[in-house]
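REQUEST
  id: r-88c1
  op: predict_structure
  target: DUF998 domain-containing protein
  payload:
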Amino acid sequence: MNPIVRSGPAARAGGLLILIGPLVSWLAEFVTAAAWQGPPYSPFHNWVSHLGLTGPPQTAFGQVADSPLGAVMNTGWVVYGILLAVGAFLVFDPRKGVRPTIIVILAVLAGAGVDLVGIFQGSNANVDNGLIALHTLGAQTVMLAGNVMAIATGANGARIGLSRRRSTVSMALGTAGLIAFPLFMADALTGWMWNIGLLERAVIYPIMISHALLASSIAARRLPATPPPTLLPTHATS
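RESPONSE
  id: r-88c1
  status: 200
  body:
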């Protein structure tokens, strides 16, 4: 199968960027959740996006939120989105057909979605001024595009250089995320809010894990050795 990724240092750099993205986001989430004021932040009960609420405590979407380090979480999301988009451009070569082009488009959509979540908070103020629409658009975009990207990269694993196991895992992660998405939406829209944080992470974490799997494979690839220069016969240079 023809590869759909670039070769050389640029591709490895892109893989590192894609790998750093979810690690930065997870670190920001851990630090921000640790600073959450009482009661302690619950990854099962509390919304993920509530970690990014800055300012005084507020009750938003049925939950009390008090996140002193909300700016840290928002920064983590914005950095993640930028690294994902830039990394995808460095790794995948759109000149090699429709497949890499689709993956790059999905990566850009997912990255833009993460950035919207980090820039436009899910706050009461944004509900009042209408900017909550951009937050919601970003969240749903990354949830859908990110999981579809996981399936697409897994389906093209042989062309990317993924092992069969990693390809299968990537497709399984994306499928699991897409299955969890309507469950999460139903839980939120009906107002039931049963373990909303758990269901939200069931959609988001498969994306992040799939990025780590993809990126670690790309970053760890051995670069082809540069062939030695071909020496011309002596009579050709005389």
